[in-house]
C-alpha cells in the first residue's frame, strides 16, 4: 500500500502569532483610508479617489476575517430524555434521532452516525484511485460504506478501463475491516449522475463526497464530522491541499493560487456559517439534504443546456437553504493538481463558468437580507472597481502626470497583499513539504498575484461572457495526472 502523507492544522497560539501582522496591517490601512475620505469630504484635499479606494479596501473584508476561523470541536453531550431507534441511534423525547435532527450529541453521538463515502471515477490513474481508496479504509474514524461509481471510464483507444485489480483489492480489504462496499459501472453521464446513482437511495446519516484523485489525511473523517454536533450545520467543507505540490512550476503556482479561496474566502465565510462552495474534493453533507435533491440535482439546466459543472456548489446551495454551511480546516485532503497548462486552462474555465452561473442563482434565490446575497454583490462591485479605477486615473489630468508613481505604489500594495495572503500557507503543517519548500513558495507569492491579475482576471471576464457553455465537463478525456509523477 502507498505511504500516505499526513497534515495538520496549526495550533491556536501559532495562528495568533501569524494573524497579528495581517490584522494590524489591515487596521492601519483602514484607518488611513477613512482619514483620507474625511479629509476629502471636509474639503482639505482635492483628491477624488479616496472613496473608491476605501470601498475597494472594504470589499476585502474576508482577508482579515479568515484569521478568526478555528476548527470546530465537539461539545460534551447535553443530557436529555432519550431512547433508541431501530438502528440503535439516540432519540430525543419526540422519538427523533437527535444525532441528526436535533440536540447536541457530543462525540459519542457523532460516533453512531452512519457514514457513506461516495467516489465517482472517470478516466482515473489506477495508482491514484488505489491511494484514494486506501486512505478511506485507514481512517481513524471508520466509515460504514464506500460506494464507487465508474462513470464509463475508457482508455485512449476507446476500450473500457475497468480497474478490476483495484476493485478486487478494495472488496477484500474492506471486508476485513467490516466496511460495506459497492462498485458500479454506468454509461458516461457526468459526475452528478454518478453520485445520485447510489446516494438517492442510500440510508446513511452523513454523505461524504470524495474525488478519485484525492487522498484523505487519516483524521479527515473524524474532524469533518465534528461540526455536525451543531444540529444547524448541514454541510462541512474539508480543507484542500495540493498533493503533487513539487511536480513542476505549474503545481507550485497552483499551491499559491488556491490560498485566497481555500484558506481565505471560504474560511471567512465559515466564521459566518455561510460557506457558498464546498470543494468536491472533500465535503460532508447531512444525507437528507442530498436525498431531498435527487431527481433535480442531476438535471439542472442553464439556458436550456444541461449543467455538467459546479456540482459541489449546487449541493452547497441545497445545504445553505437548509441551514449553516461551514469549513473544517482540520479535515484535510490532498489532491492532484493539473501538471499541464492545457489541463489547468480547461479546469479554470470550467470553474469560472460554473461559478458565474451559481452567482446568478445566489442573486435570485438567496434572501436580500442575507450574507450570501450581499457578498455576491460585493464580488461584482470589486470587479467593476478593478476596471473603473484604472480608467479614472488615466482620464483625470491631475493623475495622468503621476501614473508611474501611482502604478509603483499600486505594485507595492499588491506585493504586500500577496505576502499577507501567503501567510495562510503556514496554517497547515504537512509531512511531505519541508520548511525550505514552504519558504520558497512564500517568497514567490507576488508571482502568483501577478498571474492572477494578468491572466486569471481577464480569463474570468471571458468565462462570465461565455458562461452558457456548461454542457461539457471539459477537463479529462483520458488520464491526465498520475500519482507516480507527483
Automatic annotation (TrEMBL):
Protein family (similarity comment): Belongs to the NodC/HAS family.
Q: Which reaction does it catalyse?
A: N-acetyl-beta-D-glucosaminyl-(1->4)-[hyaluronan](n) + UDP-alpha-D-glucuronate = [hyaluronan](n+1) + UDP + H(+); [hyaluronan](n) + UDP-N-acetyl-alpha-D-glucosamine = N-acetyl-beta-D-glucosaminyl-(1->4)-[hyaluronan](n) + UDP + H(+)
Tell me the GO molecular function terms. Answer: glycosyltransferase activity
Give the subcellular location.
Answer: Cell membrane
Q: Enumerate the transmembrane spans.
A: 12-32, 44-63, 371-394, 406-426, 438-455
Its primary localisation, in coarse terms, equals membrane
Known role: Glycosaminoglycan synthesis. The hyaluronic acid capsule is involved in the pathogenicity of group A Streptococci; it may be the major virulence determinant.
The biological pathway it contributes to is: Glycan biosynthesis; hyaluronan biosynthesis
Q: Which residue intervals make up region (Disordered)?
A: 74-100
Enzyme class name = transferase
The taxonomic lineage of its organism, from the top, reads: Bacteria, Bacillati, Actinomycetota, Actinomycetes, Kitasatosporales
Q: Which domain of life is it from?
A: Bacteria
Query: What EC numbers are recorded for this enzyme?
Result: 2.4.1.212
Please provide the record's keywords in A-Z order: Cell membrane, Glycosyltransferase, Membrane, Transferase, Transmembrane, Transmembrane helix
Task: Write down what this protein is called.
Answer: Hyaluronan synthase
Record-linked InterPro entries: Glyco_trans_2-like, Nucleotide-diphossugar_trans
Occurrences of domain Glycosyltransferase 2-like (ranges): 117-290
Amino acid at each position: 500500500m502507498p505511504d500516505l502523507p499526513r497534515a495538520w492544522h496549526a495550533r491556536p497560539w501559532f495562528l495568533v502569532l501569524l494573524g497579528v501582522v495581517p490584522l494590524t496591517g489591515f487596521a492601519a490601512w483602514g484607518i488611513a483610508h477613512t482619514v483620507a475620505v474625511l479629509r476629502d469630504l471636509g474639503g482639505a484635499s482635492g483628491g477624488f479617489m479616496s472613496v473608491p479606494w476605501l470601498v475597494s479596501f472594504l470589499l476585502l473584508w474576508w482577508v482579515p476575517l479568515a484569521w478568526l476561523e478555528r476548527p470546530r470541536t465537539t461539545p460534551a453531550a447535553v443530557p436529555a430524555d432519550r431512547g433508541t431507534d431501530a438502528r440503535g441511534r439516540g432519540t430525543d423525547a419526540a422519538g427523533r434521532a437527535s444525532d441528526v435532527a436535533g440536540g447536541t450529541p457530543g462525540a459519542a453521538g457523532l460516533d453512531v452516525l452512519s457514514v457513506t463515502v461516495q467516489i465517482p471515477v472517470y478516466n482515473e490513474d489506477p495508482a491514484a484511485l488505489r491511494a484514494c481508496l486506501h486512505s478511506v479504509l485507514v481512517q481513524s474514524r471508520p466509515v460504514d460504506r464506500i460506494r464507487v461509481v465508474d462513470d464509463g471510464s475508457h482508455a485512449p483507444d476507446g476500450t473500457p478501463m475497468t480497474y478490476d485489480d483495484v476493485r478486487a483489492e478494495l472488496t477484500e480489504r474492506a471486508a476485513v475491516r467490516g466496511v460495506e462496499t459497492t462498485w458500479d459501472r454506468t454509461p458516461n453521464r457526468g459526475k452528478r449522475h454518478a453520485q445520485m446513482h447510489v446516494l438517492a437511495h442510500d440510508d446513511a446519516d452523513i454523505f461524504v463526497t470524495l474525488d478519485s484523485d484525492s487522498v484523505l489525511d487519516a483524521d479527515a473523517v473524524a474532524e469533518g464530522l465534528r461540526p455536525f454536533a451543531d444540529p444547524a450545520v448541514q454541510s462541512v467543507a474539508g480543507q484542500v491541499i495540493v498533493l503533487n505540490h513539487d511536480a513542476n512550476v505549474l503545481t507550485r503556482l497552483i499551491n499559491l493560487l488556491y490560498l485566497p479561496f481555500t484558506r481565505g474566502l471560504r474560511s471567512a465565510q465559515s466564521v459566518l456559517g455561510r460557506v457558498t462552495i464546498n470543494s468536491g474534493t472533500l465535503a460532508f453533507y447531512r444525507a437528507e439534504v442530498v436525498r431531498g435533491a435527487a431527481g433535480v440535482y442531476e438535471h439542472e439546466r442553464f439556458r436550456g443546456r444541461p449543467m455538467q459543472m459546479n456540482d459541489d456548489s449546487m449541493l452547497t446551495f441545497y445545504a445553505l437553504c437548509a441551514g449553516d454551511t461551514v469549513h473544517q480546516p482540520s479535515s484535510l485532503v490532498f489532491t492532484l493538481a493539473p501538471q499541464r497548462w492545457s489541463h489547468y486552462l480547461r479546469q479554470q474555465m470550467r470553474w469560472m463558468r460554473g461559478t458565474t452561473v451559481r452567482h446568478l442563482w445566489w442573486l435570485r434565490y438567496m434572501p436580500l437580507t442575507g450574507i450570501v446575497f450581499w457578498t455576491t454583490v460585493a464580488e461584482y462591485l470589486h470587479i467593476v472597481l478593478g476596471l473603473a479605477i484604472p480608467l479614472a486615473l488615466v482620464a483625470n489630468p491631475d493623475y495622468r502626470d503621476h501614473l508611474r508613481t501611482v502604478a509603483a505604489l499600486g505594485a507595492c500594495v499588491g506585493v504586500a497583499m500577496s505576502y499577507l495572503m501567503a501567510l495562510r500557507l503556514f496554517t497547515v503543517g504537512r509531512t511531505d513539504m519541508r520548511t525550505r519548500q514552504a519558504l520558497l513558495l512564500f517568497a514567490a507569492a507576488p508571482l502568483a498575484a501577478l498571474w492572477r491579475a494578468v491572466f486569471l482576471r481577464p480569463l474570468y471576464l471571458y468565462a462570465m461572457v461565455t458562461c452558457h457553455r456548461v454542457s461539457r465537463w471539459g477537463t479529462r478525456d483520458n488520464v491526465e495526472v498520475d500519482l507516480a509523477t507527483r
